[in-house]
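Shapes recur. Our protein:

. . .
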Amino acid sequence: MLEEDEWLLNLSRDDPDSYTETFSKPEERKARAAATKNRYDFTCLTVEEVSRSYQVPISWIGDALCNFGVVPPIQWTARMGDLIDGEQAYALLEAMHGWDHAIMYDMYTWDSLRELAASHDLPIAKVLQVCDEEGFALPFGLRSHLRLEQYARLMRRLGLARELTDPVSYTHLTLPTICSV
C-alpha cells in the first residue's frame, strides 16, 4: 500500500462519521447502527424534540397523545416510544405532515393555563375545576395551552366571556380524528 493510501485510510478512521463498513469491526458496526437508529428513530425522540424537529406546537402533540390514550400529565422529556406504539407514531407523523403548521399554532392560546389564571386573577383550583367539568384533557397539566374554543368555553363558564379579537376564524377546522380531545 502506498503512503498516500495509508494517509487516506487513517483520515477516515479518525473521523467517526466517515467510517465505512469495510474498515470497521462487526461490533463497531452494530454499535454505530444502534446509535444511528436512536438518533433518527421517531420513537426515540422526546415530546419536546418532536415539537422542535417537526415545528409543531407541543400542545397539538399533547392533544394527539391524549387521544391515543396517554394519561396526563405528560412529561416533555418522555420518549415517544414509551408513550405510543409504532402504528400510533406513524399516524401522528402522517397527521403532522398533513396540516399547515401555522394553523396548528393559531389553534392554541399563547398563554399556558397557569398564565391564563394569573392574568385574570383567578384561583388555579377554580380554573382546573372548570377544565375538569368541561372535559378538557390537559396533557401537560398547568403548562398546557388551551385550544381557542376551549379558552372561549372556559371564559364563558368563569363569567369572563369576551369576544376573541382574532379576525380569522378557525371554527371550520377541526383536529383530525386522532387528535380530537
Q: What stands out?
A: Residues 115 and 173 are 26 Å apart (CA to CA). Residues 166-174 have pLDDT under 50 and may be disordered. The two ends are 66 Å apart (CA to CA).
